[in-house]
Amino acid sequence: MRITGRPAALLTSAAALTALAALAGCTVEPQGSDGKRGLPVHIRLPSSPAAAPTGMAGTTPTTPPPRATAPAPPPRATLPAPVTRAVPTTPAAPPAPPPRVLWAHGSSGPGVRELQARLRQVGWLSAAPTGTYGPQTERAVRGFQGKRGLPPTGRLDTVTWQRLRAMTHRPAQWELYPMGGQPAAAPDARCLTGRVLCIDKTSRTLRWMIDGRTLDTLSVRFGTQYTPTREGVFKVYWKSRHHVSTLYHSPMPYAMFFSGGQAVHYSADFAARGYAGGSHGCVNVRDEAAIARLFAQVKVGDKVVVSR
User: Fold this and answer.
1) Is the pTM of this model over 0.90?
2) Active-site residue identified among 26, 191, 198, 282
3) Is 54 exposed, middle or buried (0-12, 13-18, 19+ CB in 10 A)?
4) The pLDDT of residue 55
5) Residue 53: other Cβ atoms inside 10 A
6) Which stretches of the chain score pLDDT less than 50?
7) Could you tell me the sign of the dihedral formed by the alpha carbons of 127, 132, 134, 138, in that order?
8) How far apart are CA 17 and CA 162, in angstroms?
9) Rounded distance, CA 201 to CA 70, Å?
10) Which residues form the active site (predicted)?
11) Is 282 a catalytic residue?
12) Does residue 265 have an active-site annotation?
């Protein structure tokens, strides 16, 4: 059925408005069949935000202005990460090796004799040096070590030896051999021919020599400061097996006189006290068996050389 005139124009206007509203995202209120307005119809375009409904037809909802927001804080400065440097570690030093042992129980020789003489100087050993490291020497070393905070091993090591040497002096010959037994010095040139009692004051020894060959060596001691033993070349002029001094009334067994009242003879005092004592000028021998052998070999007229 074809509609003409004003109703058709109205219908056309309504359809156009509806289409315009749909494009604009508005809300339209279509009329019902009775000519009254119906419920509003909401039309939303995908790209448009939802519009709040209004009570008036044909009104385009306005988008509320954006809320003011505080400006974003400036980015915080980022500090560079600390650089960790590897600190080289010093390797731990290896433990020091124990001091080297110089002498111990059973050792012997001139070094042990010097050790014993030095121990006597500081009062740790009372016996005379023998040159053999025995129980007495071991106890003396152990006592010396313990007194000074050293490991009391009883063995003479480099540390103990250094400490002992710092506290003592170099032993003299009479300290090394307080009871005799020291090595003899080289013989005087005057002793190299004939039959000779070759006596050396420095080494404190007597060599019995025939034509430059040493047959026996004995330890001897001499006169004191005020009664010294005379030096020079002499001859044995008298032998007396059981002699007794007429001046000092002391026994002089195996006496072989060579200069006035001075003789080579056995001395019990020398055997007992060693070099702690002295004679009145005679040459004392401490080994009775040795002087007995010598007395049997020496003849009156044999040469006697006393040198220093």
Assistant:
1) no
2) 282
3) middle
4) 45
5) 10
6) 1-3, 5, 7-12, 14, 16-17, 19-29, 41, 48-59
7) positive
8) 125
9) 117
10) 265, 282
11) yes
12) yes
- Token pair of 151, please? 């490991």
Per the structure block, which two tokens stand in for 259? Answer: 């200069």
